[in-house]
């Protein structure tokens, strides 16, 4: 298996270094992987003038999976739009045709006090949100701002084809099969026809997965249930816009941005794996960044692209153990726990592994 490594900017190289140490350890244990690093984001602009050089794209396309840390930084904010680091990110997602975004919201019991909700509501929370990423009102035509009857009107189009719904539904059902086998599909079928089709197609696809318990929820209720009783959910699947909002809501339930990985998958299960956080310029270069979201992205990569569920679980157990041992980077530190830096956290994970 070939893995394309994209450290990017800010804390990116620091947290990626810990992911690479982990991959080295797994390789010595017999995991057959090769890695190749490439430039993306601000560092790529500095070296080549483009945030997504052609050479990077070729390596990413040839790989079985792509591991990305983070891009961006204040020094790039004044560049022309096409040279901004974020363009590299959007460009690679588009080039790899990743239509399925998987965002776990997992709260380790040890970190329950970091959430803005009461510990008994969130402790042990483990939700996976599957968001469709390339369709819906964000891409639908017609769109724009136009003059109508002497005033400006803004128009966007919510549109989903059957095949788009079908393929994301398959991803969600398959993910549910690897977890607690409960899938909640979120729509707004009481007022939006596009989402009535969504519900109909999800029900059809569900017939192929009799072992998964399928339920449906209107998006307004889902937003409410996520803060009322989030532990009722296992996997949630929804469209691009609802998923955008619900996945951010769910990740905030866990309280720490430094803990959450994500995956964006294409039709063949190839994926781009990255922490949900950015390049954290405020702490870059200081050895303070939490590498756990990056390390958990490696676990997701093993689960979804490299078909190594056992190794994914091994990494997740190691992370759980270091938290139970009391190791904390600054972002998740609470009095009484042991404050460590990026490398020490990497050491602790390797030791626990
Ligand atoms: P950010 O996620 O980088 O940081 C937000 C806050 O969380 C900061 O205080 C930061 O120190 C902290 N933080 C983030 N990750 C952490 C970690 N692993 N350990 C400890 N603390 C962590 O978001 P931002 O400040 O809005 O953006 C900074 C830069 O990152 C911008 O240039 C932005 O465009 C870019 N960005 C990139 C991505 C990506 O690469 N996917 C995503 C979001 C933002």
Describe this structure in words.
- The protein is an alpha/beta fold and 353 residues long.
- The protein has two domains: 1-99 and 266-353, Isopropylmalate Dehydrogenase, CATH 3.40.718; 109-259, Isopropylmalate Dehydrogenase.
- Helices cover 41% and strands 20% of the residues.
- The chain contains twelve helices and 14 strands.
- It has helices at residues 12-28, 42-48, 54-62, 85-96, 119-122, 162-177, 193-206, 219-228, 240-253, 292-304, 309-324, 342-352; strands at 2-8, 34-37, 65-70, 100-106, 126-132, 144-148, 151-155, 182-187, 213-218, 235-238, 261-265, 271-275, 327-328, 338-339.
- The strands form three sheets. It has a ten-stranded mixed sheet, with helices on both faces. A two-stranded antiparallel sheet has the order 6-7. Strands 13-14 form a two-stranded parallel sheet.
- The radius of gyration is 20 Å and the shape is globular.
- The chain binds nicotinamide-adenine-dinucleotide.
In CATH, the architecture of the largest domain is 3-Layer(aba) Sandwich
Major pleated sheet: 10 strands, mixed
Give the overall average pLDDT: 95
Helix content: 40-55%
Bound molecules: nicotinamide-adenine-dinucleotide
Q: What is the count of structural domains?
A: 2
Shape: globular
Distance separating the two termini: 21 Å
Question: What Rg, in angstroms, do the CA atoms define?
Answer: 20 Å
Number of beta strands? 14
Order of helices and strands: EHEHHEHEHEEEHEHEHEHEEHHEEH
Classified in CATH, the superfamily of the largest domain is Isopropylmalate Dehydrogenase
| Strand residues, percent | 15-25%
Low-pLDDT segments, ≥5 res:
none
Strand order of the largest sheet: 2-1-3-12-11-4-5-10-8-9
């Amino acid at each position: 298996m070939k893995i394309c490594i994209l450290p990017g900017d800010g804390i990116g190289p620091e947290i990626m270094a810990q992911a690479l140490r982990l991959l080295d350890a797994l390789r010595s244990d017999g995991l057959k992987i090769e890695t190749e690093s490439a430039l993306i984001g601000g560092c790529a602009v500095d070296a080549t003038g483009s945030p997504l050089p052609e050479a990077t794209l070729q390596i990413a396309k040839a790989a079985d999976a792509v591991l990305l840390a983070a891009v961006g930084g204040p020094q790039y904010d004044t560049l022309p739009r096409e040279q901004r680091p974020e363009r590299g990110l959007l460009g690679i997602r588009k080039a790899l045709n990743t239509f399925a975004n998987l965002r776990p919201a997992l709260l380790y019991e040890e970190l329950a006090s970091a959430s803005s909700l009461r510990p008994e509501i969130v402790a042990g929370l483990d939700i996976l949100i599957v968001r469709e990423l390339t369709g819906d009102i964000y891409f639908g035509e017609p769109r724009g701002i136009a003059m109508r009857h002497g005033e400006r009107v803004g128009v966007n189009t919510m549109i989903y084809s059957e095949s788009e719904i079908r393929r994301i539904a398959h991803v969600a059902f398959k993910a549910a099969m690897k977890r607690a086998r409960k899938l909640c599909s979120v729509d707004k079928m009481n007022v939006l026809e596009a989402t009535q089709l969504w519900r109909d197609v999800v029900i059809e696809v569900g017939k192929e997965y009799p072992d998964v318990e399928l339920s449906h929820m209107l998006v307004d209720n889902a937003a409410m249930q996520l803060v009322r009783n989030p532990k009722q959910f296992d996997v949630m699947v929804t469209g691009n816009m609802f998923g955008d909002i619900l996945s951010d809501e769910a990740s905030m339930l866990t309280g720490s941005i430094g803990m959450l990985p994500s995956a964006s998958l294409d039709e063949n299960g190839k994926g781009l794996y990255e922490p949900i956080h950015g390049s954290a310029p405020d702490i870059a270069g200081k050895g303070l960044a939490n590498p756990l979201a990056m390390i958990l992205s490696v676990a997701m990569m093993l689960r979804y692209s490299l078909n190594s569920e056992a190794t994914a679980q091994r990494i997740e157990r190691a992370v759980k153990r270091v938290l139970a041992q009391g190791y904390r980077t600054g972002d998740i530190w609470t009095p009484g726990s042991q404050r460590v830096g990026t490398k020490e956290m990497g050491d602790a994970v390797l030791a626990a592994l």
